[in-house]
Design a protein that fits this description.
The chain has 91 residues and is an alpha+beta fold. It contains three helices and four strands; from the N terminus they run H-E-E-H-E-E-H. It has a single domain, classed as Transcriptional coactivator/pterin dehydratase (Gyrase A, domain 2, 2-Layer Sandwich). Helix content is 42%, strand content 22%. It comes from Halospeciosus flavus.
Length: 91
């Protein structure tokens, strides 16, 4: 099991564009059109499946919101931060 990050560690390690909301980290990516966002969400899904660390993904017309938390640990871990970095790299 991964260890929970402290509030200070989360603040220091949070990737660009990501924010903390309670026990999750969240980022909303913007797109020019719906299908580009859907394609991005699919890439995030493939990445998440490969890493067996699945986010909540919400697709809107020109936005895709991605949320990570480590449910088993009850909050934010290094794995969540790493997955957020990998999502940023897809963009």
């Amino acid at each position: 099991m991964a260890e929970l990050l402290s509030d200070e560690e989360i603040d220091e390690q949070l990737p660009e564009g990501w924010e903390r909301e309670g026990e999750e980290i969240v980022r909303t990516y913007e797109f020019d059109d719906y299908l580009t966002g859907v394609a991005f969400a699919s890439e995030v899904g493939e990445l998440a499946d490969d890493e067996f660390h699945h986010p909540e993904i919400r697709i809107r017309y020109d936005e895709v919101e991605v949320r990570f938390t480590s449910h088993e640990e009850g909050g934010i871990t290094d794995k969540d931060v790493e997955m957020a970095r990998e999502c940023n790299a897809l963009r």
